Amino acid sequence: MMNEASEIYNYQMKIDDLRESLSCDFVAVAIAKSASEGSEITWQYASGNLNNRYKRIILRSGKGIAGIVFKTGKPMIINDVKSDMMNEDLFNYPIVVSEKLCALIAVPLFQYARVTGVLLVGYRQPTLISETFASNLKSLLHNEFGAFDIKGL
Predict the structure, then answer these.
(1) How would CATH label the architecture of 4-150?
(2) Which of 52, 77, 116, 145 could be cross-linked to 111 through a Cys-Cys bond (beta carbons 3.0 to 4.6 Å apart)?
(3) pLDDT tens, 83-118?
């Protein structure tokens, strides 16, 4: 679903800068192979990653952090993984486990009025992610992220 503009846009550099600006531990971008229902969603870019497991995670719409945000088109904020998610359910969230995230915000990335990607910002220590933080994130992205639009944040 990438167009010429997205090929020119340096997502890796942008998420590296974003991680530094937000003083967070991890930033990643997941992109859907197609915008159709049930498409595969994979983490394409990561900054601050502990390992390369994120590259092997393949999700479907409605599954995992990226899949849920992709399906609903709404941001997901988890301030405390231990209290907000059951330990036995963590296997459904492989990015949380492999990157040892304690708090996160995941926002939908839109292209042509459809969700085609997800931006995840995570912390490895419990962190309060407030509405102010979400607003700061949106202003850092300037309402767009390469070929994607940021809406509903």
Answers:
(1) 2-Layer Sandwich (3.30)
(2) 116
(3) 887 776 777 899 999 999 999 999 998 888 888 889
Share of the chain above pLDDT 90, in %: 45
Residue type (1 letter), 76: M
In angstroms and rounded to an integer, the radius of gyration of the C-alpha atoms of the chain is 14
Cβ 60 vs Cβ 97: under 8 Å: no
Q: Please choose, from the candidates 48, 45, 42, the residue with its C-alpha nearest in 3D space to the C-alpha of residue 63.
A: 42
For 119, the enclosing helix (H) or strand (E) is: strand 114-123
Length of the chain: 153
Q: Are 138 and 22 in contact, with CB atoms under 8 Å apart?
A: no
DSSP calls for 55-88:
GG-EEETTSHHHHHHHHH-S-EEES-HHHHS-GG
Question: One-letter amino acid identity for 66?
Answer: A
pLDDT digits (tens, 9 = 90+) for 11-31: 999 999 999 999 999 999 999
